Amino acid sequence: METKHMQIGEVAARTELSLRTIRHYEETGLVIPSARSQGGFRLYTETDVARLMVIRRMKPLGFTLEQMRDLLDATDRLDGDDALDADEREVLLERLRTYRQATAEQVEKLRIQLARAEDFADTLGARLEQNAPAARV
After folding, report:
1. Mean pLDDT on 105-128
2. Whole-angstrom Cα Rg for the chain
3. Is-contact 71 95, C-beta < 8 A?
4. pLDDT band of 2, cuts 50, 70, 90
5. DSSP state of 29
6. How many other CB atoms sit within 10 Å of the CB of residue 65?
7. pTM score over 0.85
8. pLDDT tens-place string over residues 10-42
9. DSSP symbol at 7
10. d(CA 137, CA 115)
11. How far apart (Å, rounded) are the C-alpha atoms in residues 55 and 68?
């Protein structure tokens, strides 16, 4: 099966990341384009796009680039062709569980922030209604 390659512009559109951000992730070693065209353009695969989506989801949750690299390394090794012994597999799965727990904690914090923001918006709406001039009949 032939692998479809995409140029950076298509990847940016699909991931909703800027070209600059994608290049930054390349410079930091998080996502390296799978190939280059004859003209030197970066070429990405679906796997590269999936990696960028992991990063895109982790960033707003406060994960560092090093944590992103660590999680991607663990998933790469779990998904890789290399045979892992039971101990290695368990260590990698424990890393995933740690990130899952940290993500759940961040989601809860975001839910609290969202509830507070919604409450504030409702408070402002009520204040506006209280102070709006009476409608003329």
Report:
1. 96
2. 22
3. yes
4. low
5. T
6. 15
7. no
8. 999 999 999 999 999 999 999 998 888 888 888
9. E
10. 37
11. 6
